[in-house]
Amino acid sequence: MGFNILLLIVGFVSLIKGADFLIDGAVSLAKKFHTSEIAIGLTIVAFGTSAPELIVNIVSAFKNHPEICYGNIIGSNMFNTLVVLGIAGLFKPIFLQKATVRKEIPFVFFGTLLIIVLSNDFWVEGNILSRYDGIILIACLVFFILYVLRIPHQQITAEYTDLSVFKTTVFLLIGITGLFIGGELVVKNAVDIAKHFGVTEKLISLTIVALGTSLPELVTSLIALKKKSADIAVGNVIGSNLFNIFMVLGATSLIKPVVFNLELNIDLAILALITLILFLLVFVGKVSKLNKTEAVILLLCYAGYMYFLLQRG
Hints:
Elements: H1 2-32, H2 37-62, H3 66-91, E1 94-95, H4 98-120, E2 128-129, H5 131-149, H6 165-197, H7 201-226, H8 230-255, E3 258-259, H9 264-283, E4 289-290, H10 292-312
Antiparallel strand pairs: 1-4, 2-3
Helix pairs in contact: 1-2, 1-6, 1-7, 2-3, 2-6, 2-7, 2-8, 3-7, 3-8, 3-9, 3-10, 4-5, 4-8, 4-9, 5-8, 6-7, 7-8
C-alpha cells in the first residue's frame, strides 16, 4: 500500500510538472500571436490545467472506471470554484472583468445543467453519456472558443518568459509526455488504494483524484496573481471548469460512452448551486470583486461539501 501511495504522489507530480511545461509553452505560443490575457486564461492556460483531468478520464474510460470519469470532473470543478478561487481571494482581492461575471460564469452554470440533462437521458432508457452527447459537448466547446476569440485584444502584462520556437515546441512535448505518464499512475494507484480501504471509486475520485488533478489550477492561479495577472488567474479557473465539462467529458464519451451513477445527481446539483453562489458573490455591488470575506465563504462551502462526502461514504 505504501508503494501505491508513493506512485500516486509521483503521478500527481508528473501531472503538475507536465501541465506547467504545457502552460509555459502554450502561453509563449499565444503571446506570439498577441492574444489577450483573458483569452489566454480562458483557453490556452485552461486547456493546459485541464489536461490532467483529460488524461485521467481517458485512462479511466478505457479501464472501465466510469465513476472516476464523473467524480474527477465534478470534484475538480468543485475544488477549482471553491478552493482555488478561495485561496486566491485570500492571497489578494481579485477584480473581475464584468464580461467574466456576466457571461463566462453563467456559461459554466449552463454546462453543469447540460451534463445533468445529458447524463440522465430523460427522453430515453438508460443513464449514459453517449457519443451523441459527446458531440453536443464538443460543439458547445467550439462555440465557447469562438466567443473567446472575439474578446478584444489587449497588451499582455503577465510576467511570462518569452520562449524561442524550439523551446516552445520542447516544452509542449515534455508537458504532454508528463501528463500521460502521470495520468496512468494516478488512475491505477487510486483504484488500488480505494480497493485496499474498501471505499468506493466515486469517493476517491471526488476527493483525492480531483484534488490531485486540480493542483495545476491552484498553482497556476496563484502564480498568475503573483505576476499581476488577475485575468489569467480567474480565466484559468472559469475556463478550466468549462473545458472539464465540454472537452474532457465530451472527448471521454466520444472515445467510450460513460455510464452515469444516479447518486452523482446530488453532486452535480451542488456544483450548479455553487456556481450560482459564485455569480451572486461577485455580482452584488458596483464593483465585480472577490474579496477576503467572499473567499472565506467559498472555502467554508468546500469544507461543508467534504463533510457531506465523508458522511455519505
